[in-house]
């Protein structure tokens, strides 16, 4: 028996669809699709478009930080996935898993990445549980 | 006036010092120092030694996961730092910052890494705040 | 193609429906609907009714804290939404978003509120990531 | 060289000392010491006394929930410690570790407890990281 | 009107079904069903099987920690539920709620347990909100 | 006996002092002190100055979001404090508590605010612990 994947939640505001978007919002939507080389506007951006200043600042910030720098794009997306898994953010885990796969991470390397994430969520809990004192306090 | 860095917390159990350690605990302490190429036992391991099975499993697991694999050691330590910063674990942030620096990450690249961590803690909050629906549900 | 919104999760215990409620639980259900000026019992309260002492204390506490005081009702519901978004609690985000809208917050002001929530989840991560020392320690 | 334990933080409001307490606050302070069989007022309660309604409701609630019921006192304090370690709350970890020790938990059993806490912080991260679907959806 | 429970999310990788499992993965699946006395492989394990080393280490660790020790099985599962509720992990809350019920916890005792979890999430927030100083710093 | 407040942690990078700051960093430091009407540079900004792009974007973003809008400055700082207390961020709690006090919130109103924060951290845990289904799914 096949069963259809279902939407697991609905946004608390109505997303702005591409066809409804005008002006600055339309420009940002176009920039998102061109920059990410995709042919649809992800729900995150359609939702933030309800408050254009938030759409604008979030997109400009993400574009700048995820752009060329010292760390490569795959490393940055793996960091994004590690943060999202730690926070338990469903939208973000879905989105960044798709991104790391698109950048070439296969299921084995994803498994290794998530082993690291799981390990340190565990040791973080232990360090807090025993209130362990830092080893070396950096100079100040 | 100079002021000394101070311990910012004390453990809830008494750490086992190297000189007190015997048998399996001593072996693990030696293995930790040899593997990490350091000449002291970090507080995490001295604390876990209060319950040797926890020391043993945590060290074996960390040694295996942080050992050779598909992801390089610096990437794994950056993931560890991203997780620890997201959880707000003081001991862990100190420890993994020391590790990434030892592996060659300078303050500029550290700043870029933490920009990524800050960015996605922000978008995670937005995705939750608007209850944004995943874009693409993977096949199942 | 239209697709129906679907329940995104089901409770781990069977909610107590209004018609099944008797005695103290029925009284609380009536008080909830009268106080909130709504004509249904929200799922939170139907679920807590499985353990009446928890229903009772949670409702009395919420009624008292959310009642008249120094802070106005909209401010309190915005605080509730900020906490719920930060924790990533789906039920709570839905519930408090409905509440702030009912109290007059429009989508623009909601966007501004969530910008603030996103900003400080970001700076919180940075403060932890760099283990920044408090500026001014209050007298003690 | 001996080094003194130091206060690891200071409260953002001035604690109310026992000698300064009057009326309802004094009564609650006395009840806390009598109920917990201790001869000092813990900092939590001295701090909450800055806003007596919060002191009152928190103490009454804690006294009722931690009082006689289906679960024994040690189990309840272990739950409290598990929650506090997961949240990384320093004050709370210290306080509940002291409580479980007073109720007879030795360092070995504490180690076993914290192994359980660490394990499930790890599997929680994995379940979120892979967005694992619940196995069995309860009837509704 | 009856409405069907629906899957509330889908995994980001394809679960390995029992019939597809071979070698070490098949052995672990058999051990999971035998140890837990269930006749299906939970989604957690089918998902982790995408990266066998993670399946292997997670299962061996869970089996050892949840096996005979100083704390009884119900206490350990209650700790697991407290951690999972605090983290807001949907899969984990479902799974550990099923486990505590199977071990005999009825809805009343579950309500008492969750009252404790709710209480300390509240006091944790207060301790952080006021930055309360630990009462007694343990010897070091 | 008086005892001195002590630094409760030290940053993992060396803060940039005002006298060392040049160019864009000096300009931002001056803008921070002028905008906030304070005569020192808070540790957050001295630390971020280690990576000037992060200092720049964080300050510009904070200045814009915390500037004139639909919500008043005190409301925004209360939201900031609610987020910081929920995340357990020590630096941030100290900083935003100072800010709300400067904007006129007295200890009683602060107590009421923190009662709200504590209440909803409690109900968030309950909603997750019982996996409560949203009441009303918004149109999409």
Structural commentary:
The structure is a homohexamer of 140-residue chains. The first copy, chain A, has helices at residues 23-36, 43-48, 52-65, 73-87, 90-102, 107-129. With 140 residues, chain A is mostly helical. In chain A, helix 4 packs across helix 6 (107-129). The N and C termini of chain A lie far apart (64 Å). In chain A, 57% of the residues are buried. Mean pLDDT of chain A is 92; it is low at 1-7.
Record keyword descriptors for this entry.
61% helix; elongated; mainly alpha; 6 helices; disordered N terminus; homohexamer; 140 residues
Any chance you could write out the topology, listing elements then pairs?
The structure is a homohexamer of 140-residue chains.
Chain A (H helix, E strand, L loop, with lengths): L22 H14 L6 H6 L3 H14 L7 H15 L2 H13 L4 H23 L11
Helix pairs in contact in A: 1-3, 4-5, 4-6
**Number of DSSP strand runs of chain A:** 0
The secondary-structure element order of chain A is HHHHHH
Contiguous low-pLDDT stretches of chain A (5 residues minimum) are: 1-7
| Percentage of residues in strands of chain A | under 5%
How confident is the prediction overall: mean pLDDT of chain A? 92
Number of helices of chain A: 6
The first-to-last residue Cα distance of chain A is: 64 Å
Structural class based on helices, strands and sheet pairing of chain A: mainly alpha
Summarize this structure briefly.
The structure is a homohexamer of 140-residue chains. Helices cover 61% and strands 0% of the residues of chain A.
């Amino acid at each position: 028996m096949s069963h259809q994947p279902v939407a697991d939640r609905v946004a608390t505001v109505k997303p702005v669809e591409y066809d409804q978007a005008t002006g600055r919002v339309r420009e940002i939507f176009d920039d998102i699709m061109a920059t990410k080389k995709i042919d649809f506007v992800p729900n995150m951006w359609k939702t933030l478009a309800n408050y254009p200043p938030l759409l604008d600042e979030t997109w400009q910030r993400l574009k700048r930080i995820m752009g060329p720098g010292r760390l490569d794009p795959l490393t940055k997306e793996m960091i994004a996935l590690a943060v999202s898994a730690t926070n338990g953010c469903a939208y973000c885990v879905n989105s960044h898993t798709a991104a790391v796969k698109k950048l070439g991470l296969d299921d084995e390397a994803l498994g290794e990445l998530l082993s690291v994430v799981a390990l340190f969520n565990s040791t973080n809990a232990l360090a807090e549980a025993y209130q362990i004192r830092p080893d070396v306090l950096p100079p100040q």
